[in-house]
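fyi for ur records
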Amino acid sequence: MKIPAKVEYAYKAILELSLRYGKNGPVQLSTISEAQGIPKKFLIQLLLRLKNANIVNSARGIAGGYYLTRPPSQISLADVIRAIDETIIEPPREARRAKASDADKLLGRIWADAAKETARRLEERTFDQLAAQIGAEQFTYQI
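which gave:
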């Protein structure tokens, strides 16, 4: 499965807000951008979509920034993906061709089952789990 950059950046932004949830109020755009390597211009657009989906909200002013509208335990990966690009986890439509072969129908059912399973797994993964996993694991890279 190929994940678009906009979905990856949205996931990173929500993960950053989850890691900071309940600490020091709203998180400034520049803090999220720098911590996760997301271009500010792109991040503004993503946060607007996430705001429209009621996943984040914003506060104005010097101490302003962005914050989650609910605890990370109530936000799933599927929520974020749907806010940014719902077609990724949407089951494919069945072939409507008049002369769809049995092979076409079978393949359509297989893809639909795979999409449903993917969506189910993404619904199960919440941002409190992901934030805890980040805190518990040491990520090392060897070249």
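The first strand starts at residue 56 and ends at 59. thats all i got for now
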